[in-house]
UniProtKB/TrEMBL annotation:
Stored InterPro entries: Glycosyltransferase_grp1 (IPR050194)
Tagged with keyword Transferase: yes
Classification via PANTHER family: SULFOQUINOVOSYL TRANSFERASE SQD2
Signal sequence extent: none
Keywords of this entry: Transferase
Gene Ontology MF, one: glycosyltransferase activity
A Pfam match: Glyco_trans_1_4
UniProt xrefs under SUPFAM superfamilies: UDP-Glycosyltransferase/glycogen phosphorylase
Superkingdom to which the source organism belongs: Bacteria
Gene source species: Pseudooceanicola spongiae
CDD domains: GT4_PimA-like
The protein, known as: Glycosyltransferase
Length: 363
C-alpha cells in the first residue's frame, strides 16, 4: 500500500531527538519492511503546551486548513491508500487526516492514540474532541500499551482496537558484548522540564540512599541540564560521568559497559530506552508505573518498584549491586525479552497483519 504517515507531536525528521521522534521513525521503518510505500504526509506540528493558548490555537487551525488544502490538491492527482497517524493526544491532535480520509474515502489509522477525560481543560477540551472523533472514525486504533487500550475502550467502546508490542531496531544493541562493570550504572534521557526532570530528581534521591561505591553515566542533554547538574551536585565528582548526547552506536557502546540501567520512569508511555538497555544485555531498575511494565518484566528482565518510593528503589538497587548472579540472570532475560517480543521484524509482521485483517473486514 501507499501509506501517508503523520506524527502531529513531532515529525520523524524533527531536529531534536526524543522517544516520540524515534518511535515515528521506527513505525515508518517497520511499515517499509513489511513492503509498503511510506511517505511523510506533513511536517505540521500541532503540539500546544498551554491550555490557555487561544491565539496559538487559532494559528494552528489556519495552518492545518492550509495543509489540508495542499494535500487535497496533491491527492487529486493520486490519493494515498491509507493515512496513518502516530500518537494523537490532547496536546497534539490530528487536524488533517480524518477530514482528508473522509473526503477521499480512504481508511484512517492511529497508533498510540490516547484520551483522558481529566484533560478536558481550556483549548485541550476541543483538541481532545478531535482525538476522540479520529478514534471513532478509524479503521483501527493500534495501541502500544494496556493503559491506552483501556482509555480508548472507556471513551469509545465501539472503536476498533488492536494491540502491538513496543519495539525497536535492536541491531546496534544486540551486537554488543556485555562487559558489565560492577557498580556501573547508566541512564539515557533528555534533560527537560516535566516528567524527565522529575525522574532525574527521584533517581538522585534514591542514589543518595545507596551506600555501595556505584558510578553513574548520564547520557543525554537538553534545556534542563543546569537543573539536572544541580540535582547530582552533592555526589563526589568521580561518581558521575556526563556523557552528553550520543548517537545510537555511542549509546549501545556505553550501555555494554554498565551493570544496571537505572531510570524511575515518571509518566513513561513505555520508554524505548528501556528496550535499548535490555537489548544491550542490561537488567533494568524502574518504577511499576504507566507503560513501563509493557517493556520490563519484573523478575525476568528487570526489577520494578512502587511508584514514587525512593527508599524502595534504593533498596532494590543495593540488592542488585550486591548480587552478581541475579544481575547476570536478569541480563540474559532482558536480551531474550527483546529478541523474542520487541524487534523491528516482529513489529513489521504484526503491523502488516493488523492492517490486512481490518482492510479485509472493510470489504
Amino acid at each position: 500500500m501507499k501509506i501517508a504517515f503523520y506524527a502531529p507531536l513531532k515529525s520523524p525528521s524533527h531536529p531534536v531527538p526524543s522517544g516520540d521522534r524515534l518511535m515515528a521513525q521506527l513505525l515508518m521503518a517497520a511499515l517499509r519492511l513489511a513492503g509498503h510505500e511510506v511517505n511523510l504526509a506533513s511536517e505540521l506540528r500541532s503540539f500546544r503546551g498551554d491550555a490557555q493558548d487561544w491565539a496559538g490555537l487559532s494559528s494552528l487551525q489556519k495552518d492545518a486548513a492550509a495543509e489540508h488544502a495542499r494535500l487535497r490538491d496533491e491527492w487529486q492527482q493520486g490519493a494515498a491508500d491509507l493515512w496513518l497517524c502516530y500518537h494523537p493526544y490532547y496536546k497534539a491532535p490530528d487536524l488533517i487526516g480524518p477530514a482528508l480520509c473522509a473526503e477521499f474515502a480512504r481508511p484512517y489509522v492511529t497508533v498510540e492514540s490516547s484520551y483522558s477525560e481529566r484533560r478536558n481543560l481550556g483549548i485541550w477540551a476541543g483538541m481532545q474532541g478531535h482525538v476522540r472523533a479520529g478514534v471513532r472514525a478509524a479503521l483501527v486504533n493500534i495501541c502500544l500499551t494496556a493503559r491506552d487500550h483501556h482509555g480508548l475502550c472507556e471513551v469509545e467502546p465501539e472503536a476498533r482496537l488492536a494491540r502491538l508490542a513496543p519495539f525497536l531496531d535492536a541491531g546496534a544493541f544486540l551486537q554488543q558484548t556485555p562487559r558489565s562493570e560492577p557498580m556501573h550504572l547508566i541512564c539515557v534521557a533528555m534533560m527537560r522540564a516535566g516528567d524527565k526532570l522529575d525522574s532525574y530528581a527521584h533517581l538522585a534521591a534514591a542514589l543518595a540512599q545507596v551506600p555501595e561505591p556505584w558510578r553513574l553515566t548520564l547520557v543525554g542533554d537538553g534545556p534542563a541540564r543546569p537543573q539536572v547538574e544541580a540535582l547530582f551536585a552533592g555526589f563526589a565528582p568521580e561518581r558521575i560521568f556526563w556523557a552528553g548526547q550520543q548517537d545510537r552506536e555511542g549509546i549501545a557502546a556505553l550501555m555494554s559497559r554498565a551493570a544496571v540501567y537505572v531510570w524511575p520512569g515518571c509518566g513513561e508511555a513505555f520508554g524505548l530506552a528501556y528496550l535499548e538497555a535490555q537489548a544491550a544485555g542490561l537488567p533494568v531498575l524502574a518504577w511499576r508505573t504507566a507503560g513501563v511494565p509493557e517493556v520490563v518484566v519484573d523478575g525476568a528482565s528487570g526489577v520494578l518498584t512502587p511508584e514514587g518510593d525512593d527508599a524502595a528503589y534504593a533498596r532494590a538497587l543495593s540488592a542488585l549491586l550486591q548480587d552478581a548472579p541475579r544481575r547476570a540472570a536478569l541480563a540474559r532475560g532482558a536480551r531474550g525479552q527483546v529478541e523474542h517480543h520487541h524487534t523491528l521484524s516482529a513489529a513489521a509482521a504484526a503491523l502488516d497483519a493488523i492492517l490486512s485483517r481490518h482492510l479485509e473486514e472493510m470489504t
